[in-house]
Amino acid sequence: MPRLFVKRLAALASVLLCAHVAIAQSSLSPTPPMGWNSWNHFFQHVTDADVRASADAMVANGMGDAGYVYVNIDDGWQGTRRPDGTIQSNDRFPDMKALADYVHARGLKLGIYSSPGPKTCAKFEGSYGHEAQDAKTYAAWGIDYLKYDLCSFGDKLTVAGNGDQAAPAAFAAQQEAYRKMHDALVAAGRPIVFSLCQYGMSNVWEWGPEVGGHLWRTTGDISDKYDRMALIGFSQAGLSRYAGPGHWNDPDMLEVGNGGMTLDEYRTHMSLWAILAAPLLAGNDLSHMKPEHLAILENKDVIAIDQDSLGKQGDRVSALGPYELWTKPLSHGRTAIALFNRGELAHTMRVNLRELGVPPGAHIRNVWGNADLPFSDIINPIIPKHGVVLLLVTR
Ligand code: GAL
Predict the structure, then answer these.
(1) Residues with catalytic annotation?
(2) Which residues make Cβ contacts (< 8 Å) with residue 160, sequence separation at least 6?
(3) Which residue, 16, 30, 262, 283, is most buried by CB atoms nearer than 10 A?
(4) pLDDT band at residue 314 using 50, 70 and 90 as cut-offs
(5) What Gene Ontology molecular function terms does this protein carry (predicted)?
(6) Is the CB of residue 336 less than 8 Å from the CB of residue 362?
(7) Residue 36: pLDDT band by 50, 70, 90 thresholds?
(8) What's the CA gap between 326 and 320, in Å, rounded?
C-alpha cells in the first residue's frame, strides 16, 4: 500500500475515533453523577486500601445498586513525574491500573483529580504543561472521571489579568485551560466525565458546557456543619436554568455520615441536593457508617427525585424568613415539593398545594416519613428545627 494512502487512512481513523469519543463524551452524565469521593473524610491522606474498601462497601451495602457508581480519588494520589514527564502515583497508590481493574470488576467506575495549575490545592503535582500526557495516562489506567480543580492556576489568572483575576484576559485564560484538558481527554480516546472545580468564579454555569464540563462547582468548599451546608445549598436559588442532562451545577459533595450534623440536618442536605439535581457524591467513610446514615443515602424516593430523567433542577418558590418552599418538576407530570425549616425551633408550615398546581386526588408521598399523605388542599406539617418535609407528588 502506498505510504501516503496509509498515512491518510491513519489520520482518518484518528479523526473518526476522536469524533466517536466526542459524541460518547457529550452523552456522559444524562443524570447527575452519583458515587463517592475521598476528600471529605480522608483528605490528602487517602490510600489505595481506602479506595478499595470504599468500593467493596458500596457493593456490600447496596449503594452500588442504588446508583452510586463513581469511586473518586480526590487530591493526594500524585507522585513525581518521570524524566519524560509522565505522572506517577505516590507510595500510597502502588498501581493505579490495578486499582482501576479492581473497581471495574465490582461494576463501579474510578475517578481521579488534578489541576490546570502546576500544583494542586494540597500542593501535589498538577497538570500544567502536561495536559495531553496526563489525559493519556488517565485513559491508560482506565479512569472514568476527572475533577479538575483551579488551585494554583489562580496565579496564572492573576498574571494574565494583570493583577485582576476577573479581567477579560484572565477569564479567557481560565476557559482556555479547561478547554485544553477537555480536548486532551477526547484525544486520549476514553470517555471521561469532566468535572470543573473553580468554586463558581465568573458565572461558570454560563460557560461550563462550552469548555466541555459535565458539571461545575458553583461554590466554595462544603464542610460537615449545618451552617456551611445550608449557606451553600440555599444559595443555589436561581441557577436552575443552567442545569440539564449532561451539564449540572455542583454545590459540592455530600457530608452525610461524617458526624457533624443531626439526622434532620443530613435529611435537609440530601433533600436539597436532590431538589437541586446535584451530583450525589458521598463523602464519608463507607466502611464504618451508621445504618441511619446509610438509610439517608439510600432512600429510593430522594434518589429518584435527584436522578429524574427530565433533568430539571428545582428552585425556590418562596421564603418567609427561615421557612422555604422549593419545588422540582419531574418526568410524567410528577413534582417534588420540599418544605425547609432553617429556623432554630420546630415550626408548623402551612402550604396550599392547589396553588402549587397539585390537582385534587393527587398521590402524595412523604419521602422521609416513608408513608403516603391523605390528599388535602392545605397541608400543615410540623417541620423540626433545621429539618425538611419532602413530598413526591404523582398526578
Ligand atoms: C479544593 C476543592 C475540594 C478538594 C480540595 C483538594 O479546592 O474545592 O473539593 O478537592 O481542593 O485539595
Answers:
(1) 149, 221
(2) 167, 169, 170, 172, 173
(3) 283
(4) very high
(5) alpha-galactosidase activity
(6) no
(7) very high
(8) 12
Contacts of 347 (CB under 8 A, 6+ apart): 323, 341, 382, 383
Indicate the average pLDDT of the chain.
95
Query: Which residues sit with their C-beta closer than 6 Å to ligand 1?
Result: 39, 74-75, 120-122, 149, 151, 197, 221
Specify the number of domains making up the chain.
Answer: 2
For ligand 1, atom 6: residue with the closest CA = 75
For residue 283, is it within any domain?
yes
- Test site for ligand 1: of 73, 77, 149, 223, most ligand atoms within 8 A of the Cβ: 149
Residues 269 and 320 in one domain: no
Q: Is 293 left (phi over 0), alpha (psi -120 to 50) or beta?
A: alpha
Query: Are 270 and 176 in the same domain?
Result: yes
Q: Please report, for the domain that includes residue 97, its CATH number.
A: 3.20.20.70
- Atom 5 (ligand 1): residue with closest C-alpha? 121
Residue pLDDT, tens place only, 335-358? 999 999 999 999 999 999 999 999
Tell me how far apart the alpha carbons of residues 104 and 47 are, in angstroms, rounded to a whole number. 18
Report DSSP letters for 333-384, one per residue. Answer: G-EEEEEEE-SSS-EE--EETGGGTPPTT-EEEETTTTEEEPP-SEE--EE-
Q: How many CB atoms lie within 10 A of CB 221?
A: 14
**Residue 12 lies inside a defined structural domain of this protein:** no
Q: Is 109 a domain residue?
A: yes
pLDDT > 80? residue 22? no
Q: How far is the CA of 154 from the centre of ligand 1 (A)?
A: 14
Quote the cell numbers at residue 384: 423540626
Nearest CA to ligand 1 atom 2: 221
Q: Which domain holds residue 353?
A: 315-394
Ligand 1: centre distance to CA 39 (Å): 7
Residues 320 and 301 occupy one common structural domain: no
Half-sphere exposure of 104 (CA within 13 A, CB side): 11
State the DSSP string of 130-161: -HHHHHHHHHHHT--EEEEE-TTHHHHHHHHT
